[in-house]
Amino acid sequence: MSDQVKYVLDEAQIPKAWYNLNADFPKPMPAVLHPGTHQPIGPSDLEPLFPMDLILQEVSTERYIEIPEPVRDVFRMWRPAPLIRARRLEKLLDTPAKIYFKYEGVSPAGSHKPNTAVPQAWYNKEAGIKRLSTETGAGQWGSSLAFAGSLFGIDVTVFQVRVSYDQKPYRRALMETYGARCVASPSNETEAGRAVLAKDPNSPGSLGMAISEAVEIAAKDPAVKYALGSVLNHVMLHQTIIGEETIRQFELANDDPDVVIGCAGGGSNFAGLCFPYLGLQLRGGRSRRFIAVEPAACPTLTRGKYAYDFGDTAHLTPLMKMHTLGSTFMPPGFHAGGLRYHGMGAMVSHAYELGLIEARSYQQRGCFEAGVQFARCEGIVPAPESTHAVRCAIDEALRCKAEGKAETIVFNLSGHGHFDMQAYINFFEGKLVDLDYDEAALAQSLAGLPSIAA
Amino acid sequence: MSDQVKYVLDEAQIPKAWYNLNADFPKPMPAVLHPGTHQPIGPSDLEPLFPMDLILQEVSTERYIEIPEPVRDVFRMWRPAPLIRARRLEKLLDTPAKIYFKYEGVSPAGSHKPNTAVPQAWYNKEAGIKRLSTETGAGQWGSSLAFAGSLFGIDVTVFQVRVSYDQKPYRRALMETYGARCVASPSNETEAGRAVLAKDPNSPGSLGMAISEAVEIAAKDPAVKYALGSVLNHVMLHQTIIGEETIRQFELANDDPDVVIGCAGGGSNFAGLCFPYLGLQLRGGRSRRFIAVEPAACPTLTRGKYAYDFGDTAHLTPLMKMHTLGSTFMPPGFHAGGLRYHGMGAMVSHAYELGLIEARSYQQRGCFEAGVQFARCEGIVPAPESTHAVRCAIDEALRCKAEGKAETIVFNLSGHGHFDMQAYINFFEGKLVDLDYDEAALAQSLAGLPSIAA
Predict the structure, then answer these.
(1) Largest Cα–Cα separation, chain B
(2) Any idea where the Tryptophan synthase beta chain-like PALP domain is (chains A, B) (predicted)?
(3) How many distinct structural domains can be found in chain A?
């Protein structure tokens, strides 16, 4: 066993292909349906929103899809991302377990999101697109697409959820530094936004609303395409570069993970780390535990229904079968904006339904406690979203201690918390409390799911 | 010539020794004087403030000083820091020059400061010290010592300049996440602070005042030592790990810098990159240009006097011969808090006086313009301090273009700007203006320098 701290690959070792779990699922994924007709959609139905290369990735069942050289060339700015052994945390916990984390916060925007922002921007550029429209909640995705747009000369408009726009001016400044235009959502720039504002001029916004606005802009203007930072199959695909690198790094470490952990909002950072390992297992390799960690205040996998639902509040998107709390569900205002989405990506949902992965939910105070503990051992202050994965990794290491097992645990530290320090301030001041969603509102939201024969 | 983007060394290649320019200066440095007697001080005079190992480094003329293994072990968390080729910036500028930057923002605290915070905390721990006192302006140093303290079980108290304490709550939250206690300076916790507050209860504070407070705490309590993040010889020594790594990385790149650039407040990040190269030159190697870049609003090297002066406003520190604007000089409130110090480190001053290095000053608007240009090419948002180095590197690359010279330029990107986004917001809103210091006040400050025979 090596006693290195960091496992760093040379830039020549950046993976040359993404891994597509759709090649290995034991049962194919349910079809995506048209929002009006409820009939399966084809690639052409998505053409107003995405360039054809991305649509073909969305429906592909090829096992490996080549990463274009210009995209790999951009990745060389920060990839391969390090795999780091959390030795000080292990020592503090006095656990026989070995804890590793894949650190995606080394990207310019500070999270795993550029892994898909860069190829999405590049494929759009190749298709002649000069303008992209998107939404952002916590701001990680918006700043990543802004960064990618700046590299390829694409104008990016970001509908930033109003509450995040107001509370996170630094995140907005980061997007503007990269040259993007930020609009607080709901806005007066779209019908969807105006409809919400007419009812509630002080609406704090939601990710579902912001998606409606960004999609509407793209749907109405052929010169504008839409980009989504999670949920969709091609996003999961792009994020598998995380797990592909991690597999090589564990070979260097002469070790192998027994437990693989990621936080899950739309599911892309979890999928990115897990799917390559899950693929090995489905092709006859050893079995591992895969744990998706979600917030107790927005427990999509653990409390949602596996059903067809819309991706947005205005019901402009196609219908996908996924674990959902219903598109009208409004989670309470907890501090991990990236995990406040009502649905889970269809691929992660499918894997969960097939019993291939586990899910677990945590309240936020315990997550921030874990985040502070981690920062004091390993130096890196995790993003609020990522603290969910840290909490789970610590709990698994403590389980190993109780059971006397020397398991190897790896989690995805999907981003740093430099733009989320207000959450830490609230935590230290005792203002950060655990939050429960409203059971009655959830029941009502689920009752409103579109009625579609399974 | 390699066409790699990043030159990344394995953690086994972290340098094993720091380089001490005091071994190679063609003329020895002027003595440090006692603030009361004006006689040269000896190691024992510094014992109330520092552990003996650091004092011996302060006065050492050994060429190489071994980096203790436990310190190298911590460095493995993020070092070696990458040397990155700014190919997109080169292309944008259409210059024949090659531009590289050494990126120190990969450290947990986001700058080069942990390079000295970690050994300082470790030497103190080895000496049995459990409490450290320090000051911080921009917050880079305070968060770095807080981080180092968390690793070695040392309680850290940080006197944070009032204006920074109020304007940068996230930087403070970072220090508290690492477990440090932050006190707004001037404070009621020291005589020096109370004296200032008695005259001006709303004093915005200054680095010189905060140093007085931190030094006073340590001088009065034998259980507390003091730590300084720049200026002193042992700090310059610790930062040479930057240049030692860079030399190895340029060998990998099969290239060699003609121009070496760093921003300079107290001088430590500049010294860290430059001194190992300067040492090679002084021992018969090729000559290079070394450019220290300072703010026009606090132009210590370019407009200061080379004279004995105090390091703090309350005149508690020993007297060092340095380029100084006078310890009572109060620079205008520009956005690079780390460059607002009245003096320059004695080693950098000595090198400048000997004609071994150049100095240049810039106004802040041009620096932020360069910072935004850099971010849009290379993804990383530079700290306001570091934008000075970026500005200079761009200007040198444009000079190369005008002269048709394919020189190799390297600059130290000493930190990222994630905790300084308010400065970028002000820049985008047009509120960030160029600032000049008050000539009359400078003359008065210089007239008040202690009268000591050179």
Answers:
(1) 63
(2) 78-415
(3) 1
B12 to chain A, closest Cα gap in Å: 9
Residue A226 is assigned to a structural domain of this protein: no
Residue A245 is part of which domain span? Answer: 6-14+68-110+233-447
Task: Evaluate whether A302 touches A428 at the Cβ level (below 8 Å).
Answer: no
Report the residue of B77, B104, B369 to disrupt the A interface, i.e. the one with the largest count of A CBs within 10 Å: B77
| A157-189 pLDDT tens trace | 999 999 889 988 999 999 999 999 999 999 999
- CATH number, domain with residue B429: 3.40.50.1100
Q: Answer whether A169 sits within 8 Å of B421, measured CB to CB.
A: yes
* Residue (of B240, B238, B239, B230) closest to B210 by Cα position: B230
Contacts of B273 (CB under 8 A, 6+ apart): B102, B239, B242, B243, B246, B260, B261, B262, B410, B411, B412
What's the one-letter identity of residue A293? V
Q: Tell me the pLDDT tens digit for each residue of B116-172.
A: 999 999 999 999 999 999 999 889 999 999 999 999 999 999 999 998 899 889 999
Nearest to B375 among A84, A177, A425 (CB): A177
Structure tokens at B85: 């080729």
What is the ipTM metric for this complex? 0.95
**Is residue B201 domain-resident?**
no
Task: Tell me whether residues A176 and B10 touch, CB distance under 8 A.
Answer: no
Is residue A336 over pLDDT 90?
no
Residue B192 CA to residue B316 CA, distance in Å, equals: 10
pTM listed for this prediction? 0.96
Both tokens of A249, joined, read: 């790094």
Does residue A122 fall inside a structural domain? no
* pLDDT tens per residue, range B339-377: 989 999 999 999 999 999 999 999 999 999 999 999 999
Q: What letter does residue B343 receive in the DSSP assignment?
A: B
Which of B11, B376, B421 has its CB closest to that of A173? B421
How many helices and strands, by DSSP H and E, does chain B display? 17, 15
User: What integer pLDDT is reported at residue A129 of this predicted model?
Assistant: 98
Q: Sorting pLDDT into bands at 50, 70 and 90, what band is A337?
A: confident
Residue A17: beta bridge partners?
A66
Q: Evaluate whether residue B136 is within a structural domain.
A: no
